[in-house]
Design brief:
The relative contact order is 0.15. The protein contains twelve helices and seven strands. It is globular. It is of the alpha+beta class. The chain folds into two domains: 5-133 and 248-265, Beta Polymerase, domain 2; 135-237. Helix 8 packs across helix 9 and helix 8 (161-180) packs parallel to helix 11 (225-237). It comes from Pseudoalteromonas luteoviolacea CPMOR-1. InterPro entries: RlaP.
């Protein structure tokens, strides 16, 4: 496992770790895994990007032994303070989303900026994610991410160039999954260079990444015709399902076993 906490300034790292410990005390949970997500994990953060800290936690056993378990809140959320956005999911929720090939959980498990990794959670959960990964569901999720962001943010004359990267990242993820039949890598430039063969287009995208790293988060600029044409062509060529493919209910025994193992670690 490669941990790149050196990407985060020491004082910010210490503050994040203190907030994670405070969450454990406040909610009486054990944080199993905590990482940096979003633009810093994707590799195109701006100078003023928030720190998007996400974590997976487990309660004590008695918390789960409840008739009303499904009605209990399974997330921990805090307001953004001093550019640190921190929230987490209960491990049971995380494993259900893993089973559904949810792209967020797959990206969390690939983040190279790791704050907490109890009992080698990252490696074990990533092995499960790959084993349960459904190509059709992965394609469906990323395609809709691209389509919705494009329709909502990239049709005006002045647009957020950050949104171009969100759409392009999702479309490149679709192309990766179609080509390699596995979850896409989290780092955008690695992803784009593997699936975009047009060198001029790739250069344009790399220039956009460099611009994003220099500009502030809310910077607007003129729309980029070459990128709009590429995006529209990719969206029009999509041949996948227009509805979320159904989940298979087999192989949950592996997830149950892992959940029980994590539960024992907290008791």
């Amino acid at each position: 496992m490669t941990e790149k906490i050196n990407k985060i300034a020491p004082e910010i790292h210490d503050e994040i770790m203190e907030r994670i410990k405070n969450a454990e005390r406040e909610y009486n949970v054990k944080v199993l895994y905590a990482i940096e997500s979003g633009s810093r994990a994707w590799g195109f953060e701006s100078p003023n990007s928030d720190f998007d800290v996400r974590f997976i936690y487990v309660h004590k056993q008695d918390w789960y032994l409840s008739v009303m378990l499904e009605d209990k809140r399974d997330v921990i959320e805090y307001p953004i303070v001093d550019d640190i956005d921190i929230n987490g999911w209960d491990v049971r929720k995380a494993l259900k989303l893993l089973h559904a090939s949810n792209p967020a959980i797959g990206e969390w498990l690939q983040s190279s900026i790791v704050y907490v990794n109890c009992d080698n959670f990252k490696h074990q959960a990533m092995s499960l994610f790959k084993a349960h990964y459904r190509v059709d569901r992965g394609i469906y999720h990323y395609f809709n991410m691209a389509k919705n962001n494009y329709r909502e943010h990239l049709r005006a004359d002045l647009v957020s160039h950050k949104k171009y990267l969100y759409v392009l990242r999702a479309l490149c993820a679709v192309k990766w999954i179609e080509r390699f039949n596995c979850p896409p890598p989290i780092e955008f430039e690695t992803l784009a260079s593997a699936v975009i063969e047009d060198t001029k287009l790739l250069d344009k995208i790399c220039s956009l990444v460099a611009e994003k790293k220099r500009a502030t988060e809310k910077t607007l600029g003129p729309k980029i015709p070459e990128l709009n044409a590429f995006i529209e062509a990719q969206l029009s060529q999509f041949k996948g399902s227009k509805k979320a493919p159904p989940l298979e209910q087999n192989r949950v025994v592996e997830l149950d076993s892992f959940f029980q193992k994590m539960l024992r670690s907290a008791n």
